[in-house]
Structures are given as structure tokens and as C-alpha cells.
Amino acid sequence: MARILITSALPYINGIKHLGNLVGSQLPADLHARYMRARGHEVMFICATDEHGTPAELAAAKAGKPVADYCAEMHEVQKRLGLGFGLSFDHFGRSSSARNHWLTQHFAGRLAEAGLIDEVEEVQVWSPADNRFLPDRYIEGTCPACGYDKARGDQCENCTKQLTPRELVNPRSAVSGSTELELRPTKHLYLRQSTLRDRLDRWIDSQRGWPILTTSIAKKWLHDGDGLQDRGITRDLDWGVPVRRGDAPWPGMEGKVFYVWFDAPIEYIAATAEWADAQGQPDAAWRRWWRTDEGAADVRYVQFMGKDNVPFHTLSFPATLMGSGEPWKLVDYIKSFNYLTYDGGQFSTSQGRGVFMDHALELLPGDYWRWWLLSHAPESGDSEFTWENFQASVNKDLADVLGNFVSRITKFCAARFGAQVPAEGDYGALEHAAADEIDRRLRAYERHMEAIEVRKAAAELRAIWVAGNEYLQEAAPWSTIRTDREQAAAQVRFALNLMRLYAVVSRPFLPDAAARMMASLASADWTWPADTAAALEALPAGHGFEVPEVLFRKVTDEERAAWAERFAGVRS
Question: H or E element: which one contains 90?
């Protein structure tokens, strides 16, 4: 049994997340966590709301609430929606926690002791209309690279170019909209990550199994232009982790907070500590996941994120951990994703564009969305969400293949043999051939799941469902029973056992449907089918079951058209 630490990029607190956010980090992380648990491994799956920085302050101001109250409220909302999509976090924490405050200040102190922090006087944007310095995300303007007119002062979300406020064309305050901006001096702390460039480069080279998307982005930041640059880790904000050097004040940094991109990844560690606190466990319980001198050397650490988060997780966060001089666990594998597009453009939280998690759950249960998103995960390139494709996938994959199999075999058995597994007959050549095909497909499915090849795994899972339907169609127990009741009974017994196998192997993708299938079979045996032949004998003769309600309903043309019209604009 291995120990697997899984973290998903932290969703910002500034509103409900859209489906692009979901498929870019939390959902595939959950798929991996569920699969690894199913294979018997010890899993720690951690996530949290990212609550500091400009997005939180702006969203709270827009909502007319104190930022602390707003963050507490939105944390609960995001936690509830995550449960709606079946996200099985071991702990869903908050970056505003006392644990994260302490750890962030601890790392800053260690980095300062190592000579990796510089105090830099710089010129920043001041807004007379707002009577304050404007951090990068408080400034909007036109991107000089692509012309997008709502680029932020740190990054253009349209083309992902990293920016500074002074690079924006026609900059304006995101608070008041004022264009009367001026430059004033202020002092901030910088992480001297450039001094760790060679060490980071060697470390990335040692991770030979990483996706090309991950390594190419990291290498670009390391070597393009002037190479890896030092990065400011403080901001002139009221909300955030106060700048302290460990437990001591930091002279000259009064009234400042740490930059959200410094403290947010540290929350992975802090949230694990929050988990231990919530479980009434000592610090050793979380340190065994994170400290290589206390057991974490044997942990496999996997991160999931969208490609825009890759630079911070391949460079800045590792620089923080390495630079501390302490034995912290570094990531072993980073699974990064491209973008999910919507109706020819980008999903966008800030612009309210696309389908958001709360609205999606109003339309259909989480499993419908999980299947489409994972089977169309943007791994090798961007994927586009269309209502036509969503309808086709739900109707053909879920309703016509998996749902149809479950409905046909349970209803037929209940009608002709009663609501229990038939005892008569033995498996014949047709059953053995189907078992061999299922076994071959299942081993391929396992390989893809181990390699975190999400779309390939989904395709193989669907092929396993199809193989069962093809068996049922060829065996045709409704015809066999006319001439050979015992053979028909064996065919039904085989198919009911196949239904249990489907529940077990489909659970990482479709946890709710899998649970309903197992409940209808009155089974709690989630044993993974390492031996396919044995798994197809798991339900004994006479075992009772209930015919389940429709597992997946179809999406009608009228619904599809109505939903497309409803979500044609921006979120209201």
C-alpha cells in the first residue's frame, strides 16, 4: 500500500467557480484520489479556498460585506458545491486559517535567514480617487500582447501573459474606474528565486515523467528572455497574512501583507494541519505527509492545476520549500490542463461567462457533469463545451450504454426469475469470452488511470460498458429462456455480476451512480476486480436485489435549446 498526497489548485474565494475551473484542477484530482483509494492506497486529498489578495477584497466590496464575512460565507458555498459534484476531499480548508498565517510567516523567516529575501523600494501605482496603492489586480487595462481590454495588472486571462501594471495600455482602477493614476515609492519584500534557478532546473530535469505541458511552461519561465526573475511577495493590502519574520515583527513592513501567491500554496501544508486539528490528531499526523524527516520521503505527491498555475507550482512554491532549508516534501508529479472553452470563448469567473457550478447542479446531478468534463478533459489541448456535445454524451454514453444495461438486466431478472440472483446453469463459452474482453479492457483502464491519462481512461471505461451491452445483446437471455431456462439463468447471473463490477470500476468517474447501483444490488463489496473471473462470481446465487430507478435520464432537445439560450450571455 502506497501513501498518496493529492492537492488541487485552490479555488479563489471571489465567487462561484465555473466548469472550466472544476475540470482544470479539483475534478481530475478527485478522480485520482478515488481511484487510488479503490486500489487500497492511503490517500490524503487536500484543497482549500484561496481567500487573500485583491480578488477577495474586490468581491467583498461588490457584495457590500466585510471581507472576513464574505470569505466565510463563500467558503461554505464552495464546500457545499464541491459535495454536489462528489469531490471527496479529506479536508477542504481556508487559506485565512491560523495554521496558514503561522506557516507563511515561518517560511518568510526561514527564507530571510537564508539570505533569500530582499527589501526593495519600488514605484507602484497610487490612486488618488481611492486614496491607496493599487496592487496589480486592482488595475485593469488593455493587454499589450493580445489587445484584451480587461487584462489585470498581473496577468492577462485571455492570453495568459504575465504582466506588470505599467505594461497595461490605458490602465484604470478596478475599484473606482479612475484613470487618474500616479506612481509613488513604496517598499516590498522580494523572494530571490533567481538564485535558485540552477537548482530548480536540475530538479525539473529529474522529473522525467511530467506532462510536456508542465515542463514546457516551467522551462520557458526559467530560460526565456532574462530567465527566472525575483518575485515580490508582499502587497499594500489590508486583508491577508500580516508580514512578520516568523514570530517577530518585520521592521518597515508594518501594514503590509504577504502576496496571495506566496501564502496560497503554503495552504496545502496548512490545510493538512487543519485536517489533523479537526481529527484531534497531533502534529505528527500531518507532518508524516509533508516532512521527509518524519515519514514523507515515502509519500508520492501529485498536484492538479490549470496551465496558468504551473509557474507558481514548478518554480515559486518549490523555491520557497527549497529555500527554507528544511526537509519539506516536494511534488513528484504535476498534472496540468489546458483550458475548457465555452461557445468559442473563455470561461471566466471575473466576467461571469459560461456555466457555473451552482447553475449546473440546478440542471442535472453532479455525475452527468463529471462524465462529460472528465471524458473531454483538456489534456493535450483546449476543449470546447457545447450543449450539443453535452447532450450527445449524456444520452449515448450514460443513458443508452450504462443506464440501459442496468435497466434491462434488472428488470428482466425480476420479471422472469424474481428479484434475486438465479442459481441455475453454468457460464459457457460466451460468458468466458466476454470476461476475457472485460479483463483486457479493465487492465488498459487501470494503466490509463495510473498514468493519469483522463480521457483515455474514460474511453476505456466506456468500452467496458459497451462490451457488457454487446454480451447482453448476443446472449439475449429473453430469447434463450424460451428453450433453455438454465442457460438463461446463467446469463442473467453473469450480467448482474457485471453490473456490480461496473459499479466498482465506474465509481471514480460516477460516484453517485455507482452507489445507487450497489444499493440496488444490496452489496457493500467494493473490492477492486483484480481477478475479473472471480469478480464475475461475487454475487452468490439467491442474493436479493431491487430494480433501481432510472440511472441516467436523457437530455431532450427542448432542454438543450433552453439551456443554450439561458447561458448564452453572462452570469446574472
Answer: none
What does the DSSP 8-state code read for residue 385? Answer: E
DSSP letter for 53, please: S
Which residue from 465, 460, 458 is spatially nearest to 403, judged by alpha carbons?
A: 465
Packing angle between helix 366-375 and helix 511-520, nearest 10 degrees?
120
Q: How many other CB atoms are found less than 10 A from the CB of residue 557?
A: 10
How does pLDDT run along the chain (572 residues), one tens digit per residue?
899 999 999 999 998 999 999 999 999 999 999 999 999 999 999 999 999 988 888 889 889 999 999 999 999 999 999 999 999 999 999 999 999 999 999 999 999 999 999 999 988 899 999 888 888 878 999 999 999 999 989 888 888 788 888 899 999 998 889 999 998 999 999 999 999 999 999 999 999 889 999 999 999 999 998 889 999 999 988 899 999 999 999 999 999 999 999 999 999 999 999 999 999 999 999 999 999 999 999 999 999 999 999 999 999 999 999 999 999 999 999 999 999 999 777 777 767 778 999 999 999 999 999 999 999 999 999 999 999 999 999 999 999 999 999 999 999 999 999 999 999 999 999 999 999 999 999 999 999 999 999 999 999 999 999 999 999 999 999 999 999 999 999 999 999 999 999 999 999 999 999 999 999 999 999 999 999 999 999 999 999 999 999 999 999 999 999 999 998 877 65
In DSSP terms, which residues pair with 8 in a beta bridge? 304
Grouping H, G, I as helix, E, B as strand and the rest as coil, residue 102 is helix
* Structure-derived torsion over alpha carbons of residues 201, 206, 211, 215, reported in degrees to the nearest 10: 10
Within 10 A of 473 (CB to CB), how many other CB atoms are there?
A: 10
Please report, as a single letter, which amino acid is at residue 317: F
Amino acid at 359: H
Nearest to 125 by CA among 155, 168, 189, 67: 168
Terminal alpha carbon distance of the chain = 48
Instruction: Say which amino acid occupies 546.
Output: E
C-alpha 495: how far from chain center = 34
- Cβ atoms of 528 and 504 within 8 Å: the answer is yes
What the block records as the C-alpha cell of 365 is: 446531478
Query: Which element (helix H / strand E) includes 270?
Result: helix 260-278
Nearest to 265 by CA among 483, 52, 562: 52
Task: Please give the model's pTM, rounded to 2 decimal places.
Answer: 0.93
Helix (H, G, I), strand (E, B) or coil at 136: helix
**Continuous H helices in 11-165:** 19-21, 27-38, 54-63, 67-84, 98-113
Of 527, 504, 529, the closest CA to residue 514 belongs to 504
CB atoms within 10 A of CB 436: 13
Residue 232 and residue 240: Cα distance in Å, rounded? Answer: 15
Amino acid at 481: I
By the 8 A CB rule, do 175 and 130 touch?
A: yes
